[in-house]
Amino acid sequence: SKMAAASGKRFKGQISRLRKALYTACNCDDPNIKPTWQIKASEVVHDSKRKKISYKNAFLEFLGFPVAYTPYYSHPDPSVKRQSGFLFPSYTSNSELGTIIRTPYYYALSPYKDLTVEPMYISGQRPLMYAQYRQRFHNGEVNIESSFTNADRRTRVKTYSNKNRGHLFIDGKFDHNDYWRYGFNVKRTTDDTYLSRYLFEGASDRLRSDFFIEGFDDKSYFYTTGIATQVQSSTYQSNKTPLILPS
């Protein structure tokens, strides 16, 4: 990270107060390289004891252009690994959706689980809510990713207004004991164009859901799995998609 200012003072050996300052997570050792994002503020206070950086009259710049303003903003300093709070927003644009601004908030629920909630403002459509939950157990882990919006859905022949649209991804892996383990992976969407339209990572021509059970010892090995797919094509008849039963 990098912090710079026109002037500054340090109090009690722990609080730095900077005027006309900027902060970025980019090291930016090369002066010719501009950071992807940075925060400029009339005043920045870094409390090293509380491990907190706060801003007054802050502007968020993305690729050198101001995209957001707030009279006050704060976040943990880089030494903090896990703490609830706002993550840095992101900005993209798309010819169909228009301007897309993401403002994620991170919840550190415990040392073993966390939740990220990410409202998305979309100028060409209604807002979208995205969330990701992660939890580790003594014998495995679960990751859940989901989103929801109420928006128009366009097909080649018709536009459907005010449709509930979204997706759900669930991935889990567990060790039953030293010889057996199992896992599952669920990927489903409300319709076949949702992921690609909203630019989600992992969008492909088909989504694969599966489960497995695996067992082994010194002399034998066992493995069984079942697979289901959801084709992401508006011209494909989903009732023709086969199910692959355990084998």
From TrEMBL:
Official protein name in the record: LptD C-terminal domain-containing protein
UniProt cross-references to Pfam families, sorted A to Z: LptD (PF04453)
A single Gene Ontology CC term: transporter complex
GO biological process, any: membrane organization
Species per Swiss-Prot/TrEMBL record: marine metagenome
Residues in LptD C-terminal domain copies: 163-246
InterPro entries, sorted: LptD (IPR050218), LptD_C (IPR007543)
